[in-house]
## 1
Amino acid sequence: MSGFGSLILRQPYSFSNYINGVGYQLTIPLSTYESLPAPHQMAKLLTYFHVREDIQALYGFATEDERNLFLMLIGISGIGPKMAVTILSGASPEQFKRRIISGDVKALTLIPGIGLKTAKRIIIELREKLVGKDETVPEEMDEFSAGLDRDEALKALLSLGYRRNEALNALKKAHQQIGENGTVEQYVKIALNKM
């Protein structure tokens, strides 16, 4: 059993909220967390209610696009809601779509818990759905998007608490400075100096 809806959170950066005395706890991907407004502002999240015999869990998403990708992922054998949120936390929806459409197995295997078989299965099952919808995937990072070292550098900056747009802009500047053959450490070091 599952359900859809939306929830307005009044507590800033909180994954739990009380509405009329009832507490709600949401699990959200990193991309949703990054889009939360400033403290003390309301945030509207789209929700998915997952019910199994042993658990009831509520998942939250900033956009319909994120929620749709989540639903596609949990439709794949062997991928549950928690793994789907982890996968969506590894890239923006646009980046994730580009990786699926281009068949970038290596980028998917960088996500914790995703092995080679699972990455290939995700690509096989989702590519047709994404291309079939004639979805256009914006070039968020232009030529910078390719390259495992740059992708790892982005993840490192996100893990340090920087917002995705801020990290991308700094990494683009680092890429302009050191070119294609920089290491993760070089990209991160220069990007930190640029921010």
## 2
Amino acid sequence: MPMSDWDIAVSFELRTTQTKQDQKDFAEGKAKYVRGPSKRGLDKQVTWDFESPFQFSYRVVRFKISPGEYETLVTSLDRNAFPPEKLKELYHLRWGIETSLRFHLTDHLLMLRL
């Protein structure tokens, strides 16, 4: 992918069945297989909150964070409510929190060594 700003939608079908049509679609990249509950009831631990097929959609957003550096995010957040500029702002706030946490943890560990 080019090193530039972009916001693209990605969508594909998830299926828990393996019919001949499903297998053809898997081979052509039109759908992805995820293991689902067994029709015979053998595997009761596998459950999903969706019916097969399920349309899975997400966004891939890339934005510049400094000269020559970009960050790529994958999100299911709505494009209208969270445009790339808002995601960039939230990402920046997140780094402020992580940097602060790292500073305090490092400071605390240094105090423990004394």
